[in-house]
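Question (not urgent): is this output format expected?
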Amino acid sequence: MNTATSQIKLTQHTPAYWTATFDHPPINVIGPPTIVELDALISRLETDPEVRVVVFDSANPEFFLAHYDMFVDKAITMAMKPGRSGMHPWLDVLTRLSRVPAATIACIRGRARGAGSEFALTCDMRFASREKAVLGQFEVGVGAVPGGGPMARLPRLMGRGRALEVLLGADDFNGELAERYGYVNRALPDDELLPFVDAFARRLAGFDKRAIAETKAFVDQASLPPDSELPPALMAFYASVARPETRARSAALAAKGLQTLSDVELRLGHHVGQYAAPSQA
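Got this back:
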């Protein structure tokens, strides 16, 4: 059965195995409507008695989730009502997704940067195309502090030094390097990615839901950051994007074609490294 909202298409292959496909042209940016749709989907995952595994993928082979919408009025995002956890709804959907009583898998082809990377990090497992996946946290490159929890999650996956390389370097990581660093579970040849993820998901869908949920809950206790780590970084993000220097960097990227099917989006890590402020030129 297929159901679709404006940005996410849900396919229920079986009652136990679902696929949620991001489809928000041109590049799958994340914004308030995305958060609302994710909240509704996560609510279903939290309560459905049958679902055991959900795979998140993209209809766009170049972009899994590009990043947060950099042109949306930040006041609109900041004013969104807290989610069920009491946190901002972006943090709310991420933390609740990490704890749903089903396995969550990010199947990454194309780019997952910024908030797109933050979403992938929240999934239980990440499998990526060796040739076509690109992950990164570019925010520091535009003068911003990442707000969706990568400082809490990345060190737990790859260690402090590599996490700082990802966060402070603000560069792109291809699938092969992402696998080596622990950013993703595996990087597979592109033509093998979808068959592997489908077979793995169907394997999990055949197992007992209670065993999956209880085992995952114990792993969550050992590995997830406490909720208290997350809101301060989001507040730092909002403060950082309001600074004149950050606005200038964002404007320079916008002039090059940010949030369009352009070279700046295809090679964002490269382009954030090319900016020079007047004092640096």
